[in-house]
Specification:
The structure is a homodimer.
Chain A (H helix, E strand, L loop, with lengths): L9 E3 L2 E3 L6 E5 L7 H14 L3 E5 L3 H13 L4 E4 L4 H9 L4 E4 L6 H13 L4 E6 L5 H4 L7 H17 L5 E6 L3 H14 L5 E2 L7 H17 L5 E3 L6 H14 L7 E5 L10 H12 L6 E6 L2 H10 L2 E7 L2 E6 L2 E7 L3 H12 L1
Parallel strand pairs in A: 3-4, 3-10, 4-5, 5-6, 6-7, 7-8, 9-10, 11-12, 12-13
Antiparallel strand pairs in A: 1-2, 13-14, 14-15
Helix pairs in contact in A: 1-2, 2-3, 3-4, 6-7, 7-8, 8-9
């Protein structure tokens, strides 16, 4: 079991993060926020996939003004991502936004004070979102490459700035586009502050490389107990981000949802169609919400051991025979042609 | 930069692993090994994808006898995966195998001694492959679940057994089907021995969940300097395993190969078609072997920073304008319709 680092709990709409609250999964829409219909439609799809906090970009006044209407049609907390313009932040607050994501250094101090006061009055938390791609020029200096130390310096500076204004209702993020800097920066920051941390690798790339980079960085941090909310950034449909995020948290036993499948990579010993079965069983189990562990193993070398730890397993015994193992006991020896049918029946009994 | 834990260097055919040698990427065929034609064809595809060591299952004598003929037709070291039968191991050695993977506890001691003596004489290293699904019964006892401590106990026992026979030419692996046990087991083992470690999550599942689990476990271990060779186990075409393994090592700057793409997840601020462009650029750059960093960013918020760190970047400036940034300098401001064409030209100049 992972022992999570203790952070301050904060409230985003009805949802709490940090403290002992579950690690929350978030995403960001890629529609024009001012297109309320499209934006709401995308958020609904994200909710269905398991998204728990949703962020929208607010680059203009029409987007800010859309927030109230969007909020009414969705069920999860709404976060506004705002850069440079205090007027947009203030409009978002007036529209009833649940959280702001800003980089405080991007606002003149007087305007920032106004935003902080309004958020405090309305109990709206702020994410201080540091990003290696938009670091303050005085911290970067004449360097070409941003270091984790620079990112942490920027985060601490911005957190202290908010605290001086009497604002403490914060989440902090520190994103870089690569694994090494992301992991190092969060590790250093988590030693220095106890605000909840929002984890992510920024600009991670498309589904393939973005998933791998994010799984490595978040995996490494979460295993150390660091992280209270996560976003997987993919150049793709944001629904895919939610799938990946759930898989990451499930694989670490940090959250439970649906079916976990263990299946062998197949080799010369494989006596059943593991690849085909896995695909069929994956399709069969989409949408099942009860946490269930299933194993599909080509032979008995490791198959019996995996079968013992699963709720339900199919294991090739050699020749034409497949074993069905339920809660550690072999309940059936069948011809392999019938394995999927029998498996389906047994799965129904379990869930 | 990751500081790798120092391990003993060993030789597998012409390839060296451990010590300061590059972390090697391996896979396993899923053809019948006795089907020489199919097996060689698959190995050739794997070599082309970047596979550096290939393992074949040897469940019967025909498979063992195929080894010599397979070896002649391939360019990378060949490893035989053998369980229970000393006769198969001996035939594999006689056929000129480059390495054996066994679980020593699976063989009667006298026969194991024979294998060890033959391997020593022929300078064939052995991987002691511990797997949570096939742990010794006396270590498991009456427990249902295998712990990392049990796995390490099994590994140490088997390593010592080989050492007592005067055999020291070893690699060790400790695979479990989940991230937590895998990471914990390797961490503990790497404190106790200095043989090179072969990393992997066993039975990790299909492409989606297997990639995520493996990236998390290997990412966490590699970041700590643990690991000398890796295998990604996927219930899928083994070529996919090689793609994932390379992406993992590339993302940690442990190996270099081809193009690294940074691309933003797009949001309401995006003014160019980042998703479409990313796909086109990914296709364009497949097969390029020169290490090159490319960024595709929807807006200037983080785009200028990412552009600075990339060899070549496209960044949406807003409106109809895209910036082309080369080695940190804006070299072109163009209408976004022309961005791909200009990008392609500039990429050709770089590579």
């Amino acid at each position: 079991m992972i022992k999570r680092k203790k952070t301050k709990a904060i409230k985003i709409g009805k949802l709490k993060i940090g403290g002992d609250f579950p690690i929350a999964i978030q995403s960001m829409t890629n529609t024009k926020t001012s297109d309320i219909e499209k934006t709401v439609k995308q958020i609904k799809r994200l909710e269905e996939a398991g998204c728990e906090i949703i962020r929208v970009g607010v680059p203009d006044l029409n987007s800010a003004k859309a927030i109230g209407k969007i909020k009414k049609q969705i069920n999860i907390p709404l976060v506004a991502d705002i850069h440079f313009s205090a007027a947009l932040a203030i409009e978002a607050i007036n529209q009833g936004i649940d959280k702001l994501r800003i980089n405080p250094g991007n606002f003149p101090k007087q305007e920032l004070a106004k935003i902080a006061a309004l958020c405090k009055k309305n109990k709206i938390p702020i994410r201080v979102g540091i990003n290696s791609g938009s670091l303050e020029k005085d911290i970067l200096g004449k360097n070409k490459f941003v270091t984790p130390e620079m990112m942490v310096k920027s985060a601490i500076r911005n957190v202290r700035l908010m605290e001086k204004m009497g604002f403490y209702d914060m989440v902090v993020s520190l994103k870089a586009p690569d694994v090494l800097r992301t992991v190092k920066a969060y590790e250093m920051l988590s030693e220095k502050i106890d605000y909840p941390l929002h984890l992510g690798v920024t600009e991670a790339g498309g589904e393939f490389s973005g998933t791998i980079k994010t799984a490595m960085a978040l995996g490494s941090l979460l295993l150390k107990g660091i992280g209270d909310t996560v976003r997987v950034s993919l150049t793709s449909d944001p629904v895919e981000e939610i799938r990946v995020a759930w898989e990451i948290l499930k694989s670490l036993d940090l959250r439970q949802r649906g079916v976990k499948i263990v299946s062998c990579p197949t080799c010369a010993r494989t006596s059943i169609d593991v690849i085909g079965l896995s695909k069929k069983i994956e399709e069969l189990t989409v949408g099942i919400k009860k946490p269930t562990k299933v194993a599909i193993m080509g032979c008995v070398v490791n198959g019996l051991g995996e079968g013992r730890e699963a709720d339900l397993a199919i294991v090739g015994e050699g020749g034409n025979i497949a074993l069905i193992i339920k809660k550690g006991k072999i309940i059936n020896k069948i011809a392999k042609e019938k394995e999927f049918e029998i498996f389906k029946k047994e799965l129904k009994k379990i869930i």
